[in-house]
Amino acid sequence: MDPSTPKILVAEDNAALSRVLEFTLTKAGYSVTQAPNGAEAWACAQLEHFDLLLTDQQMPVMTGIELCSQLRNLEEYADIPIMLLTAKGLELELPQLCEELGIAATFAKPFSPSQVLRKVQELLTPAIV
Which of 1, 13, 36, 43 would bridge with 59, disulfide CB 3.0–4.6 Å? Predict the structure, then answer.
């Protein structure tokens, strides 16, 4: 794959949803790495740099919130776009979490993969000055 291709880390414990996201993003030209939980996503992020994180909030081993928090403590991940997927949107203080962790977008499950793709494209397309 072209080294200039944006790399996206997808941390999602629902295998079917993870495959849908991978298919949608890969078809649009992105390089996608999947992790079934936050701990594996954290391990992936230690080995390779990603341009965007797309993470589920509620996962086993390490939640998406814990993953975001740990990544934000690393200089190379201080400013990357993070998108949070959640089935618990009404139970979370999303505005506060977004501000604290620099989350660029949230999507309540169920969501449209095409909506996620549009937001990814918006976040990864350089602004023309």
Answer: 13
